[in-house]
Write a structure and sequence with these properties.
Elements: H1 11-23, H2 31-38, H3 42-54, E1 59-62, E2 65-68, H4 69-73, E3 78-85, H5 91-99, E4 104-112, E5 116-124, H6 127-139, E6 152-159, H7 162-174, E7 178-180
Antiparallel strand pairs: 1-2, 3-6, 3-7, 4-5, 4-6
Amino acid sequence: MKMSKQEKMSSKERQALITRLLKETTKPITGNEFSQKTNVSRQVIVQDISLLKAKGKPIVATSQGYIYLNKVEENKAHKKVIVCNHPPERTAEELHLITDHGVSLKNVIVEHPVYGDITATIHVSNRKEANQFVKKIEDASASYLSVLTNGVHLHTLEADTEDKLEAVCNDLETAGILVSR
């Protein structure tokens, strides 16, 4: 649904559209895509998303775009938090070891000495998304959060079976990345 240049949606209409579109798909939708559909700036979309989050909508910003959390997690019955340690240059390897088993990586958590736990949503579920995440970090010349903790970080993993989580842990352990399950 693309609007003509003259038509403007109210904030309430945009927020309803954003919510509906996110609920209808498990694929992330970027702020730019919402912006194009509604003829408003990306910044207006960011504000709408913030207002929806404040109203309790489970919308999460990932490196690929926005997702409606309940839709993504409904098929992931099993979760596990693991502790990993590796230098930044092994991030792609870590992500591939996880996603190649059909396991989703939900987030990264590091413990900051002042702020406490810092959690960043990642939501990568396949090799392509993992590569896009690494490329975005590189293109932005950004640092991974794990540099704050000399490589130590936690991940929440999600899978449809416990066996997949166990296989990931075994591979990460073999690769010398896993510290604790």
